[in-house]
Structures are given as C-alpha cells and as structure tokens.
C-alpha cells in the first residue's frame, strides 16, 4: 500500500544499536570470568582473535561516549553469564556485577536506555560439559542466573531480552556449539534442547513479571519473511513449512504457550519430537510467562521452492555455509530480484516491512528491531576516513520500510541495528564489519584498537536528531 502521508516515528522511539558480550567485550578470562562455549568452541578461532575482540571491557567509557555523541536513546548489549557465574552456577563473581553496574550507570549518565540480553550464544562451558541444554539442570541454572540479574540491575534496566536467536541456535546448532558436529541424531538432540530453552525462557519471564512488574521483557529470535519461489501452490506450501519451522515454532510457544501445529507435525514426521514431561506445558502456557513485546533480528529474507525429495534439496547459502533446504520439506533458492552483500546475504528492505507486518498480524504485540545491518569489508582510508555509503544505503532503505510498516499499524517502538561499534563477526572474524565506529585491528594483529568514526556515524547521528525525518546522506 502506498500512503499519501507517512506516519512519523513516535516521540519516544528508541533509536540505538546492538552488540553482544563475546563479540565485543574481550577480557575473556579477566576479573574472574569463566569460559563460555564461545571462548572454547572452534567456531572461528582460526580466522580471528576472540579473546580481546574490541576490548570494550576496558574501553566502555569511551565507547559509550561515542554512542552518546550519536544521540543514542537506547543501547542493546548482552551480559556474559560467565562474568556473573564463572561456572554457570555457584558463587557470584562480584567483579562481574561491578562491571555491568558501571556500564549501566555510564549509559544512564547520558540518558541512554539500556536493553539487556541475558544470553547471547555464550553458554557457560562448565554447563556445556554437564550436557548443556540437553541437561534439564541448565534450566534451573538459567533461572537462578536471571534472578541474580533482575535483583542487581532491574532498578535501572527496564527492557530485558531473554535469549538471542534461539531459532538460529537450534537450526545451526553445530555452528554455534550446541552439539558436536560429528555427533549422531543432532536434530533430535537439538529439539530437546530447544524444549528446555523454551521452558527456561517461560520461567525467566514469569519470574520477571513477579519481581519486576514495571519492567518489560521479550524474546529475541531472528525472524524473516519466507517467499515462495513462484506462484506454484506447492512452493507456497514449502514457504509455509519453513515459516513454521523457522519462525512460528519459537514465537507461538513464547506468546501462545503452544507448539505450532505445522512445526510439530514436522517434528513428528522426522522423529525429532522432544520429551515433554508432566508440568512442562503448564509452565509454557502460564499467562505470566507471556512476553510484553517481541524483539527480533532481521538481515535478509529467504526464498524456497517445493522439495524434490532428493539430496539436492539441501544446499548452502551465504558466507556461513548454512544449509537451507530439507528433503521432503522445502529447498532453498536464491531470489533473482535481490542484490547480495559481498558475503552473499540477500538485501531485502521490503522483506523487512513484510516481516514487521506478519509479526504484527500474528501476535499484536509491540515490536523492537534488535539487529539489522550490513556486514562489509570496510576500508580505512588516509586521514582516518571510512566511506561506508553502502551501509548508509542499506540502513536508510530499511528505516524507510520500517516507517511504512508503522503506517501499516505495526507498533514498532525501537530500532537497534547491528552493530553499534565494530566487533568480531561470529563466523567471519573482524574483516566483516557492521559498526558505525571502526575499530583499528586485523584478524590477529590487534594494532591500537583505536575508535574511528565512519561516515555512517555522522549520518545516523542526524537520523536520530531528526527522529528519522532526515535520512539523506
Ligand atoms: C546474528 C547474531 O545472528 O547475526 C550476531 O545475533 C551476529 O551475534 C550477527 O554477529 C551477524 O552474523 P555474522 O555471522 O555476520 O557475525
């Protein structure tokens, strides 16, 4: 629909950006921090340094001053579970509490609203050794951990996110360290882990509502529109299959407290159904466990066609070599209507509006975008200049579509692109940059880690200043 007049972003719209602890903080074993699966895993160790990353742990004051200079209204960051509990449970590490207290206070000094993700891929390694999310005790450890976070920080933190991209963790479990890539029956294991994570999330949300009635909490999956490759009816069914398996399985449980029917039928067909113990569905269906809003990450749409029922259904996409396609369910296709980033991710701003509409139609909850952005090989030019016009174009096109979605009736209350400042990409090291601020380092040569404002820094500052009215560069 074309509108003759655009609805504005609300006066209190939360403009900001995001980071995650293991990609940004560094100090991986300092001040009592224990190891996480991301520290110990082999996801990208060979291609980059993950121990120092952007050294934010030691540089947070300068970093937050830069966010304040851009005029941030909010900043989404994650807490490293292993800074609070080095072994996942047991004694609290006071230095971890101190660090996040200082970080939160520094944000509030500049009137930047903190948004805290409690778990962004970095499960404590000690819990992993005891079976990780396959072990139901991890649910109790998680609830104990969030209880400590709420009691220390909820006096100043209003917005909380439970689990970052649970759906990506389950769909690409070996890549994110949930299962051993060589283990058998990985999917069956992963869907049991998924059930446990859903229980952990429900209990964490319920607890939050009991002890922080004035705060807000929600999940943070990666959600995207899935297109059928053609108008063939069988392609439409394939797109619905993937939409249910990738998107609704997670959000229907969070919001409605039920397993999505199509996703459940898929689990049954494949033999992946989790064991559901007595009492589990009561926990999942508890009205107090319902989120107050949905946060979601969006980078690209996906396109699929009907399965051919043979091995060719399973292909790969993009730089992460993620498989897209499953025999008897759907096959991944590239979309000829879309351009791709140098890392092979399709760029689809209109798909962003579609995704916002779909989420609104289905759940009628307020929405916030907690990741959206362009990974690129930025070049530092003479005079400390980074001309990242491609990033400005990407973000501008997405913000325009977000505004159209607001016109469609979507209750969008914030936009936090990825990432505030350069950090280490999960799979592609630090050559793949996302930030508004360049961090001067290479994969293994840490150089001086100096912060350098990119062209997009100045552009985003103006976007925020004008509350999204001036998107010109
Ligand atoms: C999201 C994650 O999946 O995508 C981030 O929440 C990640 O942690 C981001 O960095 C971009 O992916 P990548 O592989 O380019 O770093």
Describe this structure in words.
The structure is a single chain. By secondary structure, the protein is an alpha/beta fold. It has a single domain (14-465), classed as Alpha-Beta Barrel (TIM Barrel), CATH 3.20.20.80. The protein is built from 15 helices and 15 strands. The protein has helices spanning 21-24, 37-40, 56-70, 81-84, 94-109, 125-129, 137-153, 166-171, 186-211, 233-256, 261-270, 280-285, 349-363, 389-407, 455-465; strands at residues 14-15, 74-78, 113-119, 159-164, 216-220, 226-228, 294-297, 302-305, 315-317, 322-326, 330-333, 367-371, 412-415, 437-439, 451-453. Helix 3 packs parallel to helix 5 (94-109) and helix 10 crosses helix 11. The two termini are 26 Å apart. The mean pLDDT is 95. Bound molecules: 6-O-phosphono-beta-D-glucopyranose. 6-O-phosphono-beta-D-glucopyranose (BG6) is lined by residues 20, 23, 164-165, 168, 222, 297, 320, 371, 375, 418, 425-428, 432.
